[in-house]
Design brief:
- The protein is an alpha/beta fold.
- Helices cover about 45% and strands about 15% of the residues.
- The protein has three domains: about 100 residues, Gyrase A, domain 2 (2-Layer Sandwich); about 150 residues, tRNA modification GTPase MnmE domain 2 (Four Helix Bundle (Hemerythrin (Met), subunit A), Up-down Bundle); about 140 residues, 3-Layer(aba) Sandwich (Rossmann fold).
- A six-stranded mixed β-sheet has the order 3-4-5-2-1-6. Strands 8-9-7-10-11-12 form a six-stranded mixed β-sheet, sandwiched between helices.
- The longest helix has 30 residues.
- Bound molecules: guanosine-5'-triphosphate and magnesium ion.
- Magnesium ion (MG) binds next to α9.
């Protein structure tokens, strides 16, 4: 970690102010080279400075400078930020100048946060929370990311882990004691009770399932039905854009077409699909295959039936289904079976009611008022492995084996917060960040 890294931390393109970040042991010398050596800002105070090219002395910008000295910085290293004017030439000039400073190189994606993690400034779940916060598109996603970044999962995982360590210490003491008696013994019943209680608590957390993961990627709603049922027309009406091709020829849509919606603060991903039928050319059949797979994995399927085709002849997906009578403008008032939503993409009838119904189901599935503890499969796996190890002890085993199971359980919880992490896991997590974070 001896390199000093730099990157633009703010988005690309024209903007009023662009933030450039630098972190590493050569941050201070670089800042001295850019400003006057006599004008080093005091750490943690904003200072206005002229930024000059270290080789030519050419003026690059006048900028606000923030300096942080190790270890009191985001990364735990010496850092500084330049709040420069956001023009492309200004940003490019300052980045070029930084590249000329000895020991400095451009940062990799996520490298600042990775350093913060390696320096113990945050754990793995808090780093993931920061990544989610940057990607959050809706209020519910933001709240969940803030909870994760604020250490909600870290706190719980650390507590469980420390409880396990304390049981393990007791078990190890009992092993030492039982050695003297030289007879194999079981785990003391009061310890079994403690492990059982701990398991119950952890299982309760596991029972929330994939709620946090669904919120991160969006509640997925797939539009399905026979060709010409009006799926693409409905898709366009829901997203209020002409995103999918509509035509009177059955089999128009072949690819999956996705769009994101913010429904009352909840993230919803809509997917338009190829009409399902047992016919079609090679391309349409591939489209139908993809449509079926997507519908099977959906959180909700909107099943559309056009007038005269209310009888469903193809196999319905297993996912939760909301049946919709499309093209209601072509139907007589009483031709619809009750409890089915009547909808017309042409007149707009039923569109608001449908949006409300989707939001209601998404709210029920995501329960955004209570941020989920776990937001990734990695989290659930770590917790599930820990629970399995503890449950094996509860079902009975010699005390020596129990000590090993406790070690496995503690390790599994440790993997959630990153106490034990393989390099490829870290690469996978931090590689997904943007450059400059
Ligand atoms: N009257 C009326 N016609 C509609 C309505 N919705 C769609 N249509 C017409 O029905 C035809 C098929 O519409 P699409 O939206 O392309 O149907 P689709 O289900 O996407 O069809 P495929 O992509 O072929 O599976 C087009 O001619 C639309 O104009 C509606 O609400 N009322
Ligand atoms: Mg279509």
């Amino acid at each position: 970690m001896s390199d000093t890294i730099f990157a633009a931390a703010s988005g690309e393109g024209l903007c009023a102010i662009s933030v450039i970040r630098v972190s590493g042991p050569d941050a201070d010398p670089a800042l001295r080279a850019l400003c006057s050596p006599h004008a080093m800002p005091q750490p943690r105070y904003a200072a206005l400075r002229r930024i000059r090219h270290p080789d030519t002395g050419a003026l690059l910008d006048q900028s606000l400078v923030l300096r942080f000295s190790a270890p009191a910085s985001f990364t735990g290293e010496d850092c500084f930020e330049l709040h420069i004017h956001g023009g492309r030439a200004v940003t490019a000039g300052v980045l070029e100048a930084l590249g000329r400073c000895p020991g400095l190189r451009p940062a990799q994606p996520g490298e600042f946060t990775r350093r913060a993690f390696l320096n113990g400034k945050l754990d793995l779940t808090e780093a993931e929370g920061l990544a989610d916060l940057i990607e959050a598109n809706t209020v519910a996603q933001r709240d969940q990311a803030l909870a994760l970044a604020g250490g909600q999962l870290r706190g719980r995982a650390e507590q469980w882990r420390s409880d396990i360590m304390s049981v393990k210490a007791q078990v190890e003491a009992d092993i030492d004691f039982s050695d003297e008696a030289d007879v194999p013994s079981d785990v003391a019943s009061d310890l079994i009770d403690r492990i059982d209680l701990l398991c119950n608590d952890m299982e309760k957390a596991l029972s929330e399932g994939r709620r946090g993961e669904i919120l991160r990627r969006g509640f997925t709603v797939v539009l399905a039905g026979a060709p010409n049922a009006g799926k693409s027309s409905l898709m366009n009406a829901l997203v209020r854009r002409d995103i999918a091709i509509v035509s009177s020829i059955p089999g128009t849509t072949r690819d999956l077409i996705e769009a994101s919606l913010d429904l009352e603060g909840l993230p919803v991903t809509l997917v338009d699909t190829a009409g399902l039928r047992d016919a079609g050319d090679e391309i349409e059949l591939e489209g139908i295959k993809r449509a079926r797979a997507r519908a099977e994995a959906a959180d909700l399927v909107l099943w559309l039936s056009a007038p005269g085709e209310d009888e469903i002849t193809v196999e319905l997906p297993q996912s939760p289904i909301l049946k919709i009578l499309s093209k209601s403008d072509l139907r007589t008032a009483d031709s619809a079976p009750e409890q089915m939503l009547r909808l017309s993409a042409r007149t707009g009838e039923g569109v608001d009611a449908l949006l409300k119904a989707i939001a209601e189901r998404a709210r029920r599935a995501l329960r955004p008022e209570e941020p989920a503890l776990m937001t990734r499969q990695r989290h659930r796996q770590g917790l599930a492995d820990a629970v399995s190890a503890l449950r094996r002890i509860v079902s009975g085993m010699p005390i020596e084996v129990a000590a090993e199971e406790l070690r496995i359980a503690a390790r599994s919880l440790g993997s959630i917060i990153g106490l034990v992490s393989a390099e490829d896991v870290l690469g996978e997590i931090f590689g997904r960040f943007c450059i400059g974070k």
